[in-house]
Amino acid sequence: MKKYIVLALAMAGCSCFGQQPEEKWERAFEFKNVGPSRGGRVTAVKGVIDSTNVYYMGSTGGGLWKTIDYGKHWKNISDGYFESPSIGAIAIFQKNPNILYVGTGSDGIRSNVIVGRGIYKSIDAGKTWEFSGLPNTGQIGALEVHPNNSKIAYAAVVGQPFKKSKERGVFKTMDGGKHWNKVLFHSDSVGAVDIELAPNRPEIVYATMWRARRKPWTIISGGATDGIYKSVDGGKNWKPLKKGLPTALTGKVDLAVSQAMPSRVWAQIQAAEGQEGIYKSDDYGESWEKVEMPAKVHKSVMYRPFYFTNIDANPQNADNIWAGTKKLWTSYNGGKKWKEIIPPHSDHHDLWINPRDSLFMIAGNDGGGAISIDGGKNWSTQFNQPTAELYSCNVDDQYPFYLYSGQQDNTTIRVPSRLPAQNVLNSNDGHGMENLVFWDRVGGCETGPAIPKPGDPNIVYSNCKGQFSVYNHKLGTEHLYYIGGESLYGNHPDDITYRFQRVTPMEVSPHDPNVVYYGSQYLHKTTDGGKNWERISGDLTENKPEYRMRSGGPIDEDISGEEYYAVLYAIQESPIKKGLIWTGSNDGLIHVTKDGGATWSNVTPSIPSGGRVQHLEASPHDPAKCYAAINRDYLGDEQTYFLKTEDYGNTWQRTDQGISKGHVARVLREDPDREGLLYAGTEFGLYLSFDDGAHWQSFQRNLPIVPVTDIQVFRKNLVLSTLGRSFWVLEDISPLHHYGPEERPKLHVFQPKPNHESNQNIYFTLPEKVTDTMVKFQFSKDGQPVHTKELKVTRLPKDELGIRRTEWDFRWYFKRKGEKDFLGPRVSPGEYDLKIFFGQDSVRTTIHYGLHPELKESGVTLKDLQEQEKLSLKVTQLYLSIAHKVKMLEEQLEEATNKKRKEGLRKRLTLLKKGPKRYDRPMLLDHVKYLMEMCSEEQQPLGRDAFDRFRQLQSEWERIQ
Questions:
Q1: Contact 276, 269 (CB under 8 A)
Q2: pLDDT of residue 419
Q3: What pLDDT score does 562 carry?
Q4: Do residues 419 and 427 touch, judged by C-beta distance below 8 A?
Q5: With contact defined as beta carbons under 8 Å apart, do 424 and 852 qualify?
Q6: Residues contacting 697, CB < 8 A, separation 6+
Q7: 726, 733, 632: which is closest to 678 by C-alpha?
Q8: How far is CA 241 from CA 188, 230, 427, in A?
Q9: Mind listing the pLDDT tens digit for each residue in 178-195?
Q10: Helix (H) or strand (E) holding 709
Q11: Is cis: bond before 554, omega within 30 of 0?
Q12: How many other C-beta atoms are found inside a 10 Å radius of the C-beta of residue 709?
């Protein structure tokens, strides 16, 4: 009978109803990226000369991406291969563009820079990758491949950003990346940041050397041996270039050459005041002259040189140069006059211009990658790149809940955990972005955090570079309540009353939504939404005088608040004991108060001093217990420091066994439903512990390699923010609350969490020695089968937890022997039985399906949905009966030989089924299908017409069958 129904559906033109999707096994615990798709910082870009539609972009935390349609769509091509998501350089062998070299580690060494893990090579245009060496070099500023020999390539290695390292300078490979030789080296503090080859003589190599170091309290850029170096024998011998170049200290230098005039070299140079700027050489770098620029343009081009300093030359016009800093500038007469170009976002880090047609180019900036096919007049969108760098994660309590953070280089942001109901039908752009494109600004600015007020998500407490505000989402208003009212920018830390970091810690009391805590070197508290603040502590930092300075040097200062070292970085009040507050500073101290700030105790753990207390987690189960994530990466220490106290900080113990080397600590959370179940975010991924941190195992699942900056456990969902890949949600972690990794595997089903969404996850385990076999699932209500399915299972990989998953979409399925089940209407809320059969064994559980809060809020009742289900089932059964009859008549018609009988069969068919033309008159089968879809499309109370129409159609069927 099933085949009759399937064919009848096809003939009736059914587009969705009754078609069951292919059943397949789903991997247990799959994370979902919920956006935003508003791009993050891109520091390396390249295109393919002969394929103007193909481009690559490398982001500072999102990995390597590729487009084959001029930037309309981007696909990540580094996931599963690269050990670091930070991209510093891309090189393509243009004679065979399937060959690519990619260097990890951005050279824009902000305080949040991610350390690189070497070079990768592809010989199939990025489909697959092989590690290609230099794993300990840190940041790679540039790569160049010989234009005629893909086995020869050069790497400009900046080095480790937070410590001295001998793997710095210029490296060269002669065997396609199997071995790299250091061909230019100065010291363990000076690296190379750029390389160019002379277009007509690739044995001429230019390189720039740069002393660069990031410390928590300052940024160092420049030194006596920095500058431009040249080799005329492919890197065997080098000489410094001096004639006409700055004589004082030199810092970061970027170079550009043009095939239109191979002897010309452009240089953008950080140097002492009066000598910095753009320089030009027309004799292969032997002598230089400074380009005189308009003062306004000069100031803009030399803005924050340690972070920017990017110059490019048009391959078809040696007088056309491009300079990228906060703004993007171009000159067509060698730098005398300049024009500002307006890509989709500011802060520019790289540019590639097609040597065959200079109208085609790709720019990398703080908003992502953007492509122009008209010389920079128009650009592709950057709202299709889910590479947001997010510092934190907070959630509100509405349905669906929203996720909040500050997005670096953009604004604060909130995104829905799933599409709001009113946007479901019009959400998909046709290419899988779905709700990634939905976001709102919620006050504050890029640094965040942003925390919705519990119980009132229209009110958001926000931060902008140390300054507090209150945003009203309903009104779109923001009230500014700056504590102290002093700017972070440009101040010596001793010259301001309150030292605030750009990313300022903020905590809303779990006991009173009107109480907000805020951290400078002191802990501040407001009870009236920020109008009035009180200081409830003394200085809770170490505040050593040797670390208080004007950040920068030895050439330029850079004082943006990132470098205020003795400030609070973490605050948390115990969720089970009011007034028990923990604080951590970015110079290593932890304090606790048990009386709301009246008295404080220094409870700093006995580990190497000075590390950033990145996160504190007051246990939701035990007031004496607290966890700390301490990051000493910024001091050159790549150990992982997760710690735990169970006696209010009197003693601490390390709890980081099993975390991979170099995966420095970012965040740790304890599950509110299971004591000792911990989730840890590190620089390169996610970990899980079932025994309160004694042992850890990777819980990466389908997450990309990326820093996990914050974690929330909310409504049995695991919610993550990342520094380069936006937000991720694992929608159901309830099995983890009952799973014992030490238990012997057996047939077991985990109690499903009460659910009101459209799908129910079913988690279960099977005996360990499972080969290809079948498992049967039977869903029923009051003894009546609703859905039965069988699925083939295979042995799980060793790294899996042992938990398997399938799902039920809360729909009726009508069984038809030998065919796929017919998909029926949605069931109404209630309790459903599930029984799982495996061999001779079986287990059972109960599924609690509730009325969705959004439906309840709109006035839909349980009785409404029960009546809808009852009628929908009747209509579906009527449809199946008619469809079966139609198929029988058609088969009889096909077999009939008697003319009179054929005519009689055709006449009966015309009463049941419309003709083949689009606008032929609909008949009974079509009318019932139409009603079936109307009754089942949405969960809603049905109107009287639905019931009346069913009775009409039922009577007509009884009359003509």
A1: yes
A2: 75
A3: 87
A4: yes
A5: no
A6: 658, 687, 688, 689
A7: 733
A8: 22, 7, 57
A9: 999 999 999 999 999 999
A10: strand 708-714
A11: yes
A12: 25
Question: Which of 306, 340, 347 is CA-nearest to residue 325?
Answer: 347
Count of Cβ atoms closer than 10 Å to residue 173 Cβ: 23
Cα gap 183→88, rounded to integer Å: 20
Portion of the chain with pLDDT greater than 90, in percent: 89
Q: Please provide the DSSP assignment of 312-338 as one string.
A: EEETTEEEEEEEESSSEEEESSTTSS-
Give the angle subtended at the CA of 437 by the CAs of 416 and 451, to the nearest 5°. 35
**pLDDT over 60 (residue 23):** no
Mean pLDDT of 454-459: 97
Closest listed residue to residue 108, CA positions, set 366, 306, 348: 306
pTM of the model: 0.94
- Nearest Cα to Cα of residue 524 among 484, 486, 566: 484
Please return the burial class of 494, using the count of CB atoms within 10 Å of its CB with bins 0-12, 13-18 and 19+.
exposed
> Residue type for 240, please?
P
Decide if 496 contacts 489 (C-beta within 8 A): no
Structure tokens at 325: 């800093």
| Dihedral sign from CA coordinates of 216, 218, 223, 229 | positive
Q: Structure tokens of 599?
A: 């008295």
The CA-CA-CA angle for residues 585, 588, 592, to 5°, reads 60
- The pLDDT of residue 846 is 98
Beta bridge partners of 650: none
User: What is the tens place of the pLDDT at every residue in 676-705?
Assistant: 999 999 999 999 999 999 999 999 999 999
Give the tokens for residue 903.
Answer: 């005519």
- Residues 599 and 593: their CA atoms lie apart, in Å, by 6
Q: In what order do the strands lie in the sheet with 310-314?
A: 310-314, 317-324, 328-331, 339-341
- pLDDT of amino acid 12: 34
DSSP element (H, E) containing 857: helix 853-857
Q: Do residues 609 and 598 touch, judged by C-beta distance below 8 A?
A: no
886 with 913: CB under 8 angstroms? yes
For 77-131, how does the pLDDT look when each residue is reduced to its tens digit (9 = 90+)?
999 999 999 999 999 999 999 999 999 999 999 888 999 999 999 999 999 999 9
Tell me if 34 sits within 8 A of 416, measured CB to CB: yes
For range 702-717, the mean pLDDT = 97
Report whether 764 contacts 804 (CB < 8 A). yes
Element (H, E) at 48: strand 42-48
How many Å apart are CA 170 and CA 162, to the nearest integer?
19
Question: How many CB atoms are located within 10 Å of the residue 52 CB?
Answer: 16
Q: How buried is residue 650: exposed, middle or buried, by Cβ count under 10 Å (0-12/13-18/19+)?
A: exposed
pLDDT by residue (tens digit) across 783-810?
999 999 998 888 888 778 889 999 999 9
Q: At a CB cut-off of 8 Å and minimum separation 6, what does 849 contact?
A: 755, 756, 760, 810, 827, 829, 830, 831, 832
Q: Is residue 4 pLDDT above 70, yes or no?
A: no
Q: What would the two tokens of residue 766 be?
A: 């099977």
- pLDDT single digits (tens) 373-391: 999 999 999 999 999 999 9
Buried b (16+ CB within 10 A) or exposed e, 876-905: bebbbebbbbbbebbeebeeeeeeeeeeeb
Measure the CA–CA gap between 577 and 572, rounded to whole angstroms. 11
User: Which residue reads 């779990």 in tokens?
Assistant: 510
Tens of pLDDT, residue by residue over 393-431, are 999 999 999 999 999 999 999 999 987 654 443 333 434
pLDDT at residue 831, rounded to an integer? 97
Name the token pair of 294.
């308009």
pLDDT value at residue 668: 98
Nearest Cα residue to 805 out of 26, 15, 19, 249: 26
Collapse the DSSP code of 654 into the 3-class scheme (helix H, G, I; strand E, B; otherwise coil) and give the result. Answer: strand
Average pLDDT over all residues of the chain: 93
Query: What pLDDT does 13 receive?
Result: 34
- Bridge partners (DSSP) of residue 406 are 412
Encode 667-704: b = buried (16+ Cβ within 10 Å), e = exposed: bbbbbebbebbbbbbbbbbbbbbbebbeebebbbbebb
